[in-house]
Amino acid sequence: MLLEALYHVPRDKWAYAYDNSTIHLRIRTKRDDLEQVIAMTGDKYNWAGTYQEYPMEKAAHDRMFDYWEVDVRPRYKRLSYAFKLVAGTETIYMLDSGLQHDPPSPPGECFEYSYIHEIDVFKVPEWAKEAVFYQIMPERFANGNPDNDSKPVEKWGSPPKFDNFFGGDLQGVLDHLNHLVDLGINAIYFTPLFTSPSYHKYDTTDYRQVDPHFGDNALLKKVAVACHERGIRVVLDAVFNHCGEQFPPFQDVLKHGQNSKYAGWFHINEFPVKIKDGVPTYDTFGFFGNMPKFNTANPEVKEYLLGVAEYWIREIKLDGWRLDVANEIDHHFWRDFRNVVKRVNPEAYIIGEVWSDSLNWLLGDQFDSVMNYPFADKVLEFFCGGMDGYNFSNEMGSLVMRYPQQTNEVIFNMLCTHDTPRLLTRVGGDKRKLKLCVVFLFTYIGTPCIFYGDEIGLTGNTDPDCRKCMEWDPLKQDRELLDFYKMMIALRKKHVVLRQGRFRFLQAKSGNPCIIYERLDQSMHFTVWMNNTDKACVLSHPIQTSDWQDALTGERVAPDSGTMNISLDPYGFRILYRHIK
To answer: Glycosyl hydrolase family 13 catalytic domain spans which residues (predicted)?
Structure first.
């Protein structure tokens, strides 16, 4: 047993309250090193009367480690615990005081979860577990009102550039809500809507006004009402890391320098405020001089921005915020942000833009979720032939173990966004590979999101090409692909197990890019079979039960002498399920 690989701490993702009566425990061990891990649990005030052993399950693995997990429901909301680790004839006990070979004398020296306080339990919005999101960049979605177009506006569908306009607006969104309903969408994430000189609106100049080229506040309210009437939630983009150069307080700083009453609103490194040797004398988003960075620790800035967040929650009954460049804003601000937003709407869904491990923001006091770019990167690398099943299962296991379960259930999963090449382009135009990615997206843990136009076959490389105009001519849309998206969305929405069930790989071999994985809960069992190669194959796996059927065709499928054999076309897949009696 490699003792140096053992790891557990009684906090964060390793020991946490999942709900008001359940504590999740996790422990890490060397890959394929242990045969059994047992959680030894009890109440520290009545250990003998409450003692219970829980065999732990190997929930995931990565290249170097196994991760074991168990759900414990303590009788009195308190928990003292230790771990019994078994490898062959060797047994080790892991306690808060360290490792030992002799059985412990609990509860002394045990780990402790002191008490499940309801106020401390990390609660995520339940509706986000049911959501299928659709990301809309309004300027490129649909032009519903040419009268509010900026001048000049290029012909709809012309090549996008970094600075051209096409006239998309909120009326265009309103006109096409039925497309989203027909697709199965029940949540929209809008990129920024507020007044800004750019088409993308990430350089805001007025946080309380809808950009006049999109419409006005009354129209946004009308869109929100129409969405809510159709069962569609609305999430807006909050750009609180920085503003636009034309934002009035920053203009005041440009005019009055250090004598401006707004000088403390920004991170000014040197006066006068200017571009010096190609670099701004003030902090910005990246090095873009037209996007000065807010000093969110400044009380006036904080009051202003939190007022904006509260205003839109109340004004349009907003269902949540997506937070731009969230990792570059101080944690104190986000804690106050969460309190303000959740006070007005306890079910508001807060999504941070953080591109890497985000645990610091996902402990219940800041965000509910983050944009899961690592998910997209690993899924696309695998289905584009960049790794085998063994390594893919390792990568996904590592991602699952990054966060507590309640976060995994609402992690914001997408395959592309306005900041990445489009999905069809990233898979080299091969719709078979695209479909494998989409099947994985909709049968995986978390909250899936589609970028507008993916469902009808829009292509596009990196920005600005990925921000093409939506194609509304049915003759130019890939209708077969659209039907495929509808089918997968409907399947996910029909079955709770695909939204909240356990995820686990059943087969993922070294040197083999074909995989089998499962989603499982107390009432239903799904298995997904994928051939990630350009040759037909047969995937086989031991399965004893015979009551399986194809989730898409309804066809009955049975194993042969305890082995399920599934024939798959090149880049083919099959989804099977059975009811658990």
So the answer is: 135-492
pLDDT tens by residue, 21-71? 999 999 999 999 999 999 999 999 999 999 999 999 999 999 999 999 999
CATH class of 3-120: mainly beta
Tokens 């759900």, residue? 71
The pTM of the whole model exceeds 0.90: yes
CA distances from 35 to 8, 38, 68, 342, 436 (A): 18, 10, 11, 44, 34
The secondary structure of 551-577, three-state, reads CCCCCEECCECCEEEEEECCCCEEEEE
In eight-state DSSP terms, residue 81 is E
Are 3-120 and 501-579 equal in CATH topology? yes
28, 66 contact by CB (below 8 A)? yes
- The correct answer on CATH 2.60.40.1180 for the domain covering 501-579 is yes
Residue ranges of the domains in the chain? 3-120, 128-241+306-494, 244-295, 501-579
In three state form, how does the secondary structure of 208-269 look?
EEECCCCCCHHHHHHHHHHHHHCCCEEEEEECCCECCCCCHHHHHHHHHHHHCCCHHHECEC
What positions carry a catalytic annotation? Answer: 324, 353
Angstrom distances, CA of residue 27 to CA of 7, 266, 364, 379, 470: 6, 44, 21, 26, 47
CATH number of the structural domain 244-295: 3.90.400.10
Q: What is the pLDDT of residues 408-465, one digit of tens each?
A: 999 999 999 999 999 999 999 999 999 999 999 999 999 999 999 999 999 999 999 9
**Does position 581 have pLDDT exceeding 90, yes or no?**
no
What ranges make up the beta strands (E) of 47-202?
52-55, 57-61, 65-72, 79-87, 90-95, 98-100, 111-113, 133-136, 187-190, 194-195
Rounded Cα distance between 255 and 262, Å, is 11
Neighbouring C-alpha atoms within 13 Å toward the C-beta of 309? 28
Domain 128-241+306-494, second-level architecture: Alpha-Beta Barrel (3.20)
Q: Which tokens hold the place of 443?
A: 């049968």
Q: Any idea what the Cα angle at residue 102 is, between residues 97 and 104, rounded to 5°? A: 50
